[in-house]
Amino acid sequence: MLPVVALVGRPNVGKSTLFNVLTRSRDALVADMPGVTRDRHYGICRSGERPFVVVDTGGLSGVEDAMDVLTAKQVRLAIEEANILVFVVDARDGLLPQDYVILGELRRSGKPIIAVANKTDGLDEQAVLAEFSAFGIATTLPLSAAHNRGTDELIRVVLPLLPADEEDAAEANGEDGTIRVAIVGRPNAGKSTLINRLLGEERLIVSDVAGTTRDPIRVPLERDGKRYTLIDTAGIRRKARVEEAVEKFSVIKTLQSIAAAQVVVVMIDARENLADQDLTLIGYAMDEGRALVIAINKWDDMDQYQRDECRRALDRRLVFVEWAKQVQISALHGSGLRELMRAVVRAHASATKVLVSSDLTKTLEKAYESYQPPLVHGHSPKLRFAHPGGNNPPTIVIHGTRTKHIAPAYQRYLENFFRKRYKLEGTPIRIAFRESENPYAGRKKVLTKEQEQKARRRVSDLIKRTR
Question: Which function does this protein serve (predicted)?
Fold first, then answer.
């Protein structure tokens, strides 16, 4: 496994900014306010000679608030699993009593500690280092994460402290061969609870307070011999209710997670039934062409009558995605999770299925013989042949004549025909029509003299007969 470096410190000292610089990404949400990061956020730094895992953590505020207590629990888990601790302090705030409290907790872990004085731009670095020398830490570095100054020196200091591991190169190759699954839904739908249940540990913060998750958190999972990357996302509310800038950024990150995923699991609270915002999320997934699974959570809290009413409502409002598998689950108690993961695997297999041109053309011919498209100005569109145009989602390109006039209803008929033929479950199908070129377009027929004379005689004879 790759060695782990944890970034620890008070709220709003720049840990998330430093995380983005080290991982060369924008995965961590950054805002000029404390308490934005709550869960542990993992990324890989590849800037040095050896890759290592960077963990962004929430700020340790020392406040006994419920959310701060849950955040502190996640920070302590990161400290426990880390090989090296990077203690981030704010050079502009100077030494604060809370920094000494955090430092004492870091020292009790027995892990190597590197102190980083962030936000030193415009300050006398020697004076800053002299002030923070009171920590008694051998390695204290000046840094400006926002301007990427001092990060190379930090990596140079970290590398010799990393434990040797011959499997680093294999681990750094990324998520090849894994199924990327984005779990989306409205606030308090149970997304973090689901991931914790699948992992069998309290990996993510779970609270009854809506909007607990802000950053999209990627979590690796291996289950039944298959590897997954689960992406926990922030709950999305209606646009009119989104006021804070942090929540707006969280929504953008969630939409980016949908685009980056291969399978999207839309979680619906069965007790609140299907809301318009759930349909909006399903629409986003369809626009991105992602495989889709509908997870109906909190199913165990309902009696039989409520379940029947919920099924009828879902069947009525989800008729436009009837190809998506609906799974009733309880993220809290773990019921239905095996069926959910099977639905995810089937949806991913359908979305990445390899289609063959010859078989697609034969299927197209059968569909055309069974039901021909409606006439257009007295002529029927002709569909000649088909070939694959890509996968995730499966794309079928059909060549023919007058394809511009094919009705949407006939296109849906073709989608359903291909879906039934290839047993494509849980994925949208895109059909692209290509108009065959007319080989005589732009060519003007030139008559010979004999043909011109015959044409004139026919015209004159026709005129005489009409008289």
Answer: GTPase that plays an essential role in the late steps of ribosome biogenesis.
